[in-house]
Amino acid sequence: MVFSSLYFLFLYLPIVLLLYYITPLKWRNLLLLVANLIFYAWGEPVYILIMFVSIAIDYTHGMLVEHNKRRGNDRGARLAVASSVIFNLALLFFFKYWDFIAGSLDAIGLTFMPKLGLSLPIGISFYTFQTMSYTIDVYRGDAKVQRNIINFGTFVTLFPQLIAGPIIKYKDLGDQIDYRTHSPEQFASGVQIFVVGLAKKVLLANNIGKLWDTILALPTGELTTAGAWLGVVAFAFQLYFDFSGYSDMAVGLGRMLGFEFMRNFNYPYISKSITEFWRRWHISLGTWFREYLYIPLGGNRVSKPRLFFNLLVVWAATGIWHGASWNFLIWGLYFAALLILEKAFLGRVLQKLPAVFQHLYTLVLVLVSWAIFAVEDFGHMGAYLSAMFGFGSGLSNAQVRYYFASYLPTLLICAVAATPLAAGVWKKLPRRVMQLVLPVLLLAGLVFSTAYLVDATYNPFLYFRF
Question: Quick one: pLDDT at residue 464?
Fold first, then answer.
């Protein structure tokens, strides 16, 4: 089940909210646990067993960590953390990477790993990282051990951010799991954020995504330079509004239920460097890798060669986290190279340039990265990148001009919506005007999104495969 579906909007969500608010406080986590499991089982009833195993393993390992620490047995606590991490990574490896590695080995004549053909459990990359943070946080003393298995299960399976994040670390949510406040103002702000996210996903991402799909489907012999850039711009908007819209919906749903999740995006396309871009894009993932991989490797408090090595490891892991395909690893290493260059000297050079050149530099490199990210087939990727840099079937043609003219209004709306411009104008309005206009805008966003979902068959969610 996805948030941008009629079943979720008009069946599941109203029932869950009604039951949640009529349930006594002490039973709300139990209700949420049941609701979370129904939400997940809606799409994958078999893989709900993985949830039960993950809850049991990480819950018991957290208790082991706390028990050993209380007795002064640091070695035992470390072993418990290591065991938990190994289990979580093994789970992720088996379902996400086994067939990828088996296929890669088979391509070079090594057949000792059979392909299993297992489907990828939805959201496994997200909830595996969340549960893995639990035992680490308990060991570090950043979080208290959770003795109530119902509460711990609620954390692991919390439906607003279960399948697509934001990635919530236990230390940031543990206290809220045990105790949280509810207010009409918090609920209203949650509704507002949710509807904005829904409109971003349904009205912007879905519509501009059709342009990307159309251009991606063109035979490589018909791909022009202008067409390739138009396509990757469309994909950049689709990915941003798809994922940030879904993240906004998660934040809004969290507030409706009394939780506060971190915001996952901060207008990344206005960045002036790749370093800044990754402070603004998928913030929860970047924070997770920084706290649990980059800093343990030594972070930036090391020699330059070791710093560059740390960045290489982190970005190789970031790339392959996104998907079991070589293009994702290349994508991660591409950003590693850019970030190393910025750390070495390029960042200082950029700061001396006019802001427009800094923005242009960042946008061009990010758009190139999205071509690598989106096209998994190496042959097609090579042809697409070649077309972007003038080695396609010409500069432009009538077909591309038609696509551009047809989608120009959508492209302009997306361009404005991807910046703080509209939000800045909104904040300058008189409070009285905002109070009058806001309900109308929210109602319009909900109505138009619903109308689109009723009428349309195109409603992909890009991060399901991660």
Answer: 55
Question: Which residues does the annotation mark as catalytic?
Answer: 322
Could you state, in order of their start, the residue ranges of all structural domains in the chain? 6-180, 186-465
CA distance 253 to 313: 34
pLDDT 10s digits, 357-375: 999 999 999 999 999 999 9
Which amino acid makes up residue 51? M
| 88 in Cβ contact with 128 (< 8 Å) | yes
What CA–CA distance (Å, rounded) separates 85 from 135? 8
Q: Which of 91, 68, 142, 69 is nearest to 295 (CA)?
A: 142
- How high is the pLDDT of residue 109? 82
Amino acid residing at 324: A
* Residues 106-165: tens digit of each pLDDT: 888 877 888 888 888 878 888 888 888 999 999 999 989 999 999 999 999 888 888 777
Could you give the CA distance from residue 356 to residue 316 in angstroms, rounded to a whole number? 30
Cα gap 338→297, rounded to integer Å = 20
Exposed / middle / buried, residue 153 (Cβ in 10 Å: 0-12, 13-18, 19+): buried
| Polymer length in residues for the chain | 466
Q: Within its chain, how far is the Cα of 103 from the centroid?
A: 26
| pLDDT for res 461 | 59
Instruction: List alpha helices for 71-169, DSSP H.
Output: 74-92, 98-107, 124-140, 149-157
Picking from 341, 342, 296, the residue whose alpha carbon sits closest to that of residue 317 is 296
User: What confidence score (pLDDT) does residue 312 get?
Assistant: 96
188: number of CA atoms within 13 Å, CB side?
Answer: 6
* Number of neighbours of residue 430 by Cβ within 10 angstroms: 8
Q: State the Cα–Cα distance between residues 204 and 312, nearest whole angstrom.
A: 34
Residue matched to tokens 């802001």: 355
- Answer yes or no: are the C-beta atoms of 453 and 206 closer than 8 Å: no
